[in-house]
Amino acid sequence: METRSIKQIRDELKNYPPDQLQALCLRMAKFKKDNKELLTYLLFESEQEADFIQSVKAGIDRGFKDMNRGSGYWIKKSLRKILKDTTQAIRYSGIKTTEIDLLIYFCRKMRTEKITMSTSPVIRNMYVRQVQKIETTVSKLHEDLQFDYQEDLTYLKA
Fold this sequence. Notes:
Number of domains: 2
Radius of gyration: 19 Å
Largest sheet: none
Order of helices and strands: HHHHHHHH
């Protein structure tokens, strides 16, 4: 089966009545967990972005609390899972300030939880990549918003 372009799909969806669109959305949600999570965000959480950010931060906190600190391997594995979940939430939102807030929170949590970055180059590189991602995203924002995030960036780079 050949996958169609977004434009072709959009044009085809215009031909469907609302009840058939609803049935298509529900069928798509049953097919894959990611689709259901995205629909949940769009229908229930997109209107209250601050609450969504708080729930993702709570998930990050849970991940750090449940982290197995037995060895560097398990720390690295746990950090990757937390970051994967955070990145997925960022993709659902699509708002740059949400992305920055969540990544800053993740990096601050890495620093406050005393994750040893000096002994593991993988963990250090993970941290550095996230700080670079924050810098790149901040540079695309309005100057006033850039100024608001400079203090956080200074802390993360130190």
